[in-house]
Specification:
- By secondary structure, the protein is mainly alpha-helical.
- It has 2 helices and no strands.
- The chain has helices at 2-23, 31-55.
- Helix 1 packs antiparallel against helix 2.
């Protein structure tokens, strides 16, 4: 369940960054949005890697 919620939050963060880029193409993205998306993506990668190691 936690992996699902983290995945959902990651999708929301990435879509938010894309939406901000479309709405304001000249303005830089807020650093908080970029850092949040990067942290959530790394969390998902670590979770997937842990699951793959458990399967082996």
């Amino acid at each position: 369940m936690i992996v699902f919620l983290a995945g959902f939050a990651t999708v929301v963060a990435v879509v938010t960054c894309d939406a901000l880029r479309i709405v304001r193409p000249d303005a830089p993205l807020p650093k908080a949005a970029v850092y949040t998306a990067a942290a959530l993506l790394s969390l998902i990668c670590v979770s997937l890697l842990t699951r793959l190691i458990q399967l082996l």
